Amino acid sequence: MGNDVSRRDWLKGGTALAGALLMGSRANAQNMAVPGFVPTPDNPIRLGTNENPYGISRVARNAIVDMFDTAHHYGRGRTMELMEILADIEGCETKNIRFSGGSGEILKTLALITAVEGGTILTAEPTYHELTRYAERRGVPVIRVPVDETMTIDLDAMKAAYTDDVSIIYLVNPNNPLPTIMEKNKLKEFCLEMSKKCLVFIDEAYHEYAQNPDYETMVPLAVANDNILVARTASKIHGFAGVRLGIAYSTEAWIAKLRDFMTGGTNKLAIAGAASSYKDTATQDFLRRKNQESLKIVYDLFDKHNVNYVKSSANFIFYETGMDIKDVREKYRANGIVVGRPFAPFLTWCRVSMGKPEDMEYFATVFEKEFT
Ligand SMILES: Cc1ncc(COP(=O)(O)O)c(C=O)c1O
Question: Does 118 or 77 have the greater pLDDT score?
Fold first, then answer.
């Protein structure tokens, strides 16, 4: 690489050459907005893992590159700065915050605590499986309560299913693969009542996408009451899925317990990127707008063909295919699209993550060709 194109500029994508190289690379070519991109089974559009199709914001990318200079040093980097930014956004104190290597680490740590200390996990079905699978592999019993007929987590049924050996109630809000939310007042009441008996753990991985007025974060409750913990992730709207940063909000007692049990953690680069990304509200607004545009393309498509689907408070849709999801996935894959995995017991339903609007136009073409 010539002197006029420094490595740092190249990494930042700050030159025409860098731009051309990045555009041409396979890693960036997974959406229809890239000129000349043709989706194939080997190089598909990624609509299967609820990622941010635009990638990490420019300011966050620059902050990560700047931190490379001291990446070989141990140390906390911008940890305290990020804690203060988040404490400010959430209206809590830095002592209420703990970072992890993705929120999956928080989920697994809580499962591990139950495996070590004993207890049962109570959760909804279907929901995100990382915590329960990890727990079950260690012999922890899991009670699963089906969602109600509106595809929403049924808090009354959860209460009815509670038994004295439950140590954690795990609720995902907005849920996944069902992109529905629990009504804020009902959820608050539930948290306050059930946290007298066990830990109520709310996983808010899709918090930044939730625009339904009935949605509210439980972070204020988690930092002011015993036995409520909220997890967030930078993997979704911030695009850090491959960089890894999760955030736990709770009382000092639960933050200390997490610290005690956690075995991994995050890293300086993720922290530095996040310190810039969480302040970059313009990019987050842009991404929310684009997500709504993409959702509308798919809603219009499904309405046109009378498809049964669940309206989204996140960056994905769940719809009824009338076919085995394995066959549905194969058909999409043959057309260069990856959609979500099977989610029991909804094995004829499909979860589709929102790509860029251009990707969803292509998705609509494939849907009409293969399924109508
Ligand atoms: C509901 C939910 N929680 C947690 C995670 C884990 O995210 P990460 O470990 O990337 O923070 C995901 C990932 O898709 C998710 O959907």
Answer: 118
CA atoms of 49 and 134, how far apart (whole Å): 19
Convert the pLDDT of each residue in 40-96 to its tens digit.
Answer: 999 999 999 999 999 999 999 999 999 999 999 998 889 999 999 999 999 999 999
Residue nearest atom 6 of ligand 1, based on CA coordinates? 104
Q: Among 50, 134, 209, 235, which is best to mutate for testing ligand 1, by the most ligand atoms less than 8 A from CB?
A: 235
**What lines the ligand 1 site, CB under 6 Å?**
50, 102-104, 128, 172, 176, 203, 205, 233, 235, 241, 246
Residue range 23-32, pLDDT digits in tens? 444 445 578 8
Q: Can you read off the two tokens belonging to residue 31?
A: 């959406």
What percent of the chain stands above pLDDT 70?
92
pLDDT tens digit sequence for 160-216: 999 999 999 999 999 999 999 999 999 999 999 999 999 999 999 999 999 999 999
Domains of the chain: 29-54+281-371 (3.90.1150.10), 61-277 (3.40.640.10)
DSSP E strands in 274-333: the ranges are: 309-310, 316-320
Cα distances (Å, whole numbers) of residue 149 to 90, 153, 252: 33, 10, 38
In ligand 1, the atom with minimum distance to the C-alpha of 241 is 10
Task: Look over the chain and give the mean of its residue pLDDT values, rounded to a whole number.
Answer: 93
Q: Which residues of 48-77 are buried (b: 16+ CB within 10 A; e: fewer)?
A: bebbbbbbbbebbbbbbbebeeeeeeeeeb
pLDDT value of residue 82: 98
Which of 49, 52, 130 is the best mutation target for the ligand 1 pocket, counting ligand atoms within 8 Å of the beta carbon and taking the most? Answer: 130
Ligand 1 centroid, distance to 238 Cα (angstroms): 13
Cα-based distances in Å from 27 to 37, 39, 42, 329, 363: 12, 13, 12, 22, 20
201 contacts 170 by C-beta, under 8 angstroms: yes
Contact 360, 354 (CB under 8 A): yes
